[in-house]
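## retry 2 of 3
previous attempt timed out at serialization; input unchanged, resubmitting
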Amino acid sequence: MSKEVKVRQPRRLVRRATAALLLDCSTNMLKKLEREGRLTVVRLGGRDVFYPSEQIDALARGEE
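## retry succeeded, writing output
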């Protein structure tokens, strides 16, 4: 009896300031993308804001 177990890869997160540097844009632009639903915000407590690295990579490549 073998049971298949799915293992999720840990999600890599990027801080807002780092994402702005990687995308060569302002943090205000990132906030606009959040409001438009193009970026998912991850908060781990406190005021720090993170984004999934997959979304930042996709924006850097010009994908939506």
